[in-house]
Predict the 3D structure of the following.
Amino acid sequence: MTGIAYSRKFTAALLVLTLGAGASVGLLTPAFAATPASSCTTPTFPRSTTATAGTNPRHVLTADLDGDGDTDVVAANLDGNSVTVLLNSGDGSFAAATTYTTDSLPVAVGSGDVDGDGTADLLVSSLNGDSVAVYRGGSEQLSLLTTLTADGAYDASVADLDDDGTADIAVAAGGAGQVVTFTGSCS
Ligand SMILES: [Ca+2]
Ligand SMILES: [Ca+2]
Ligand SMILES: [Ca+2]
């Protein structure tokens, strides 16, 4: 078996974070979801929705985390030790935010299909926690699959690095001045 089946739909969106306590995540959704960007001469991005996130959201990601075919939004709340997940209702509006507690200083979120089921999963890199938490997607409630240890974890990415058909994970370990890879296996 070669290759990894990644999520069906990772639609681009432009997001704006307003920093500070009680911060909000503003989502600017132009009507480009069904229109190729090349056909748009002058795109505009009026503010569409605003959702309350945790304390000091610093990084945001779009991916279909619940596997229902529409693109969801997740923000890493740096000083809230949490991530906020906004599930898309299918029309660019979002259900009530779900908060997941993380290790200390979650600085970045990433996604990829770590278990090969065709739906996106979530990676949360925690700088002070020296960890990358891997959450299984594919349903409205994400579940913690495993936690990787990396000194000063700053970012993580998913790819099949050894071409064995299972996803692997690369982590920028800022505290150690290293890039650490984790070889995926399936049991
Ligand atoms: Ca979705
Ligand atoms: Ca998956
Ligand atoms: Ca692999």
The pocket of calcium ion (ligand 3) is lined by residues 160-162, 164, 166, 168, 184 (CB under 6 Å). The chain has no helices and 14 strands.
